[in-house]
Structure formats: structure tokens, C-alpha cells
Specification:
mainly alpha, two-stranded antiparallel sheet, elongated
């Protein structure tokens, strides 16, 4: 079998599989399970030998640009061909507005982020009661961690 590509289509010059080379059912001396001779009509495509069918399948895969998988193994090709779901899922949910960033980018609008202000007040009150986060050490001698080891 030889195939040559020319521009956008596949041109097949010769084929190894030809209907004239396949054995005819009457030439095989086959008998049906009930003992009767096989049908005498001429089939459109006589059953071929396995290697003929394998060559035909290889050619079909080459022409239609599919994967040749004679063992029928699970390749996941069905899922890889599917359209990706991510972009449509992202388009479904509306974009969230980051209010803090918007206020920082537009200081001339004089907006106030009430949640951030409330958090700062809570932190200030907790620190007054001694429940806030510890102060950061400026050098290793001020570190509480180093003091515990001594």
C-alpha cells in the first residue's frame, strides 16, 4: 500500500487489499453447521483473511486520521476529543468585584470599605485587651522563640 499526500487530500495509489484477491466462499469448501453447503449468491464483499482486514483497517485509520487500535485498548481518545469544559464554566459564574482593590485604584471617589474598617477596629480593640498578635521581632535577640530555648 502506498499513499501520497497532495495538498489537502490523501491520494491512494495502490492497495494491498483488493476484492479480487480475497477467496470466495465457494472456493473455501465451507459447510454450515447444519451440514448444508454455503449460500451460492455472490456477496458484495467476501470475508477476507485476518491480515487483509487488518490492512484495510490500517488504511481506514490513515485516511480518516484516527488511531489504529487493533486490540481495542482504552486510550481515552473519546474524552480528549471533547470540548473543554473550563471556559464555559468560567463564563457561567459572574466575575466578583474586589472592593478593596477598586477603592485603592479610585481614591478620588472617596469610598469606604465598611468590612475592612470593622476588621481594623476589632484588631485595635483586641490588642488593647492584650489578645492581639505578638509584635514582630526586629532582630534575633528580641525573638520569643530564642528566649524560650535559653
Amino acid at each position: 500500500m502506498t499513499a501520497s499526500t497532495n495538498s489537502n487530500f490523501l491520494e491512494v495509489d495502490t492497495l494491498d487489499v483488493c476484492a479480487c484477491t480475497l477467496p470466495h466462499s465457494r472456493d473455501l469448501n465451507l459447510k454450515q453447521p447444519n451440514g448444508h453447503p454455503p449460500h451460492t449468491h455472490t456477496p458484495m464483499f467476501a470475508p477476507g483473511l485476518p491480515y487483509h482486514l487488518r490492512a484495510l483497517t490500517k488504511l481506514r485509520c490513515k485516511i480518516f486520521q484516527t488511531t489504529y487500535n487493533p486490540q481495542g485498548l482504552r486510550t481515552g481518545a473519546k474524552y480528549l476529543r471533547q470540548r473543554l469544559r473550563g471556559p464555559s464554566m468560567m463564563a457561567y459564574y459572574p466575575t466578583t468585584l474586589n472592593l478593596s482593590r477598586f477603592i485603592r485604584q479610585n481614591p478620588d471617589m472617596e469610598m469606604v470599605n465598611e468590612d475592612a474598617e470593622e476588621r481594623l477596629v476589632d484588631v485595635y480593640e483586641r490588642r488593647k485587651r492584650g489578645k492581639g498578635a505578638p509584635k514582630k521581632a526586629k532582630d534575633k535577640t528580641e525573638s520569643r522563640r530564642l528566649q524560650k530555648r535559653r
